[in-house]
Amino acid sequence: VVVEPESILRLTTFADYCKNPTIVGGHMFDMYDRTVLHAFGEVVNPWRTFYDRPHDDMSLGHDLGRSNLRNTHWLHRRVDVDYNGWWMCLIPTEVINKIGLSLPLFLKWDDAEYGLRAKEAGIATVSFPGAGLWHVSWTDKDDSVGWQAYFHERNRLITALIHSPFEKGGSVMRESLFLD
């Protein structure tokens, strides 16, 4: 991980000006392709309990070297998100006092579960443009296979059973059969 110190200052300054306690996250750029915006504020599809984009016109892996910020209109608007990945996330102590600590999920979906719990408690999450870091992308390390695949699936199921508005987590169990 490479963190720009200015990003930490921006997150804390923004959080200090929030009227209510707010979880504030930064954007994640690809460590090996530094102009590629790999992830930002994220949403969980409630039926599938799987990662989704905040809006259909947004794209993961957007290369700002090819289409700069001025020409990337979807980055100019506010979007509501369910959580921000913990690669860069500021959680005020007031939030921890209100909803508690993260579940002991160890790796994968712990950030999503916590963000969904915060949202249910009326706590907003903001993915703050202008703050970010560089991190190895999921596509480079493919952590959906090998030993980490177990944690992906287990923690996804736990999150679905706790937070899905649908009985038995919606289609999460059926769709889990399709994952390898």
Could you walk me through the main structural features you see in this protein, from its secondary elements to its overall organization?
By secondary structure, the chain is α+β, with helices and mostly antiparallel strands. The chain contains 6 helices and 8 strands, in the order βαββββββααβααα. The strands form 2 sheets. Strands 1, 2, 3, 6, 7 and 8 form a 6-stranded mixed sheet that branches. A hairpin with a 2-residue loop joins strand 2 (23-30) and strand 3. The two termini are 28 Å apart. The mean pLDDT is 88.
Helical residue percent band = 25-40%
Oligomer: single chain
Radius of gyration, whole Å: 16 Å
- How does the major sheet shape up? 6 strands, mixed
Give the low-confidence spans. none
Number of helices: 6
What distance separates the N and C termini?
28 Å
Shape label: globular
Number of strands: 8
Fraction of residues in β-strands: 15-25%
The assigned structural class equals: alpha+beta
Mean of pLDDT: 88
Helix-strand topology string: EHEEEEEEHHEHHH
Concise synopsis of the structure shown:
This protein is α+β, with helices and mostly antiparallel strands. The chain has 6 helices and 8 strands, in the order βαββββββααβααα.
